[in-house]
């Protein structure tokens, strides 16, 4: 059945250390996200933008920057994403910075608990985002959402979905990782996160990586993709606040997306951290749009399923 996609904009950079991701949702609209997807026969409704508090741009307090504002945005995201799922639609959250995945994925986890579905999260990112107040060098919560979802963080964030932790590390597969803070490395290892970093991809190739990351998915799986645009190599996707060299090439990224599409299991999506203030003529938004097309089944040839 053709999914009915609900676009949900979350225009904030409250969890980031660089301003500009708040303009991400509009950059995707300018790039033609809705008409492009509709051109592939998909049903798409743009629900506009969520409202939330302004970014106060203050120093960290107790290891967290803007905790009250981050919590408010994530509560709002949680409600909108959960409403879309409850009404049988596929939410596509347009960020905004990656702290918003706390609200999005906690809503997906809540939905899966209600339906008895198995949740698999593919975290496409240059960073593991597994910091805590004790580990973070910055206090920026866009470096913490995976840890929060796994129950490590303040109650204002870990309790958003009504259950803490929202999910176990075993539900997550991280792909494209190449920047992890010093203290975060040990915590990632101790927590048992399954991480396919760039060395793994270099040695094994993207095809093998995706086969491993997608192993075990079946009819009872809800597949959620959290796509941080800094997953991509900065040479062709500069419009992000935390660009890191040495990411997947354009073709590697396309293969990643096409293999996700081949499963037919993607049921929700975040597209995060696009920063038009650092982009060049909206080129990063356009590249990301091409990859989103592939996530929804665009391919060079008509392939056998």
From TrEMBL:
Gene Ontology MF, one: arginase activity
Name of the featured protein: Arginase
Cofactor note: Binds 2 manganese ions per subunit.
Pfam families per record: Arginase
Keyword field contains Hydrolase: yes
Source species, domain of life: Bacteria
UniProt keyword terms in alphabetical order: Arginine metabolism, Hydrolase, Manganese, Metal-binding
Keyword Manganese part of the UniProt annotation: yes
GO biological process, one term: arginine metabolic process
UniProt pathway annotation: Nitrogen metabolism; urea cycle; L-ornithine and urea from L-arginine: step 1/1
EC number(s) reported in the record: 3.5.3.1
NCBIfam families referenced in this protein's UniProt entry, alphabetically: rocF_arginase
Reaction catalyzed: L-arginine + H2O = urea + L-ornithine
Family: Belongs to the arginase family.
Broadest EC class assigned to this enzyme: hydrolase
Cofactor field: Mn(2+)
Name of the gene: rocF
Entry's Gene Ontology cellular component terms: cytoplasm
Binding site for Mn(2+): 98, 125, 127, 129, 228, 230
Organism of provenance: Polaromonas hydrogenivorans
């Amino acid at each position: 059945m053709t999914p009915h996609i609900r676009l949900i904009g979350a225009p904030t950079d409250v969890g980031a250390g660089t301003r500009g991701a708040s303009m991400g949702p509009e950059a995707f609209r300018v790039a033609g996200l809705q008409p492009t997807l509709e051109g592939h026969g998909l049903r798409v409704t743009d629900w506009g933008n969520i409202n939330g508090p302004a970014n106060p741009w203050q120093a960290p307090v107790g290891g967290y920057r803007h905790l009250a504002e981050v919590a408010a945005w994530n509560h709002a995201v949680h409600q909108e994403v959960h409403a879309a799922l409850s009404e049988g639609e596929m939410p596509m959250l347009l960020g905004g910075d990656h702290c918003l995945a706390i609200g999005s994925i906690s809503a997906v986890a809540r939905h899966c608990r209600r339906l008895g579905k198995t949740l698999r999260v593919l975290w496409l990112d240059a960073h593991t985002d597994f910091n805590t107040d004790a580990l973070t060098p910055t206090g920026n919560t866009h470096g913490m959402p995976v840890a929060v979802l796994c129950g490590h963080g303040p109650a204002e964030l870990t309790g958003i979905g009504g259950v803490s932790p929202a999910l176990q590390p075993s539900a997550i597969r991280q792909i494209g990782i190449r920047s992890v803070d010093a203290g975060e490395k040990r915590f990632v290892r101790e927590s048992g996160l399954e991480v396919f970093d760039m060395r793994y991809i270099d040695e094994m190739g993207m095809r093998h990586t995706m086969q491993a990351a997608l192993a075990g998915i079946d009819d009872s799986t809800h597949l959620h993709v959290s796509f941080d645009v800094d997953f991509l190599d900065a040479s062709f996707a500069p419009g992000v606040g935390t660009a890191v060299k040495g990411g997947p090439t354009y073709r590697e990224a396309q293969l990643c997306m096409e293999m996700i599409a081949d499963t037919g299991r993607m049921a929700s999506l975040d597209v995060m951290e696009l920063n038009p203030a650092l982009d060049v003529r909206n080129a990063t938004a356009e590249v990301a749009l091409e990859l989103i097309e592939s996530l929804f089944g665009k391919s060079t040839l008509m392939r056998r399923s």
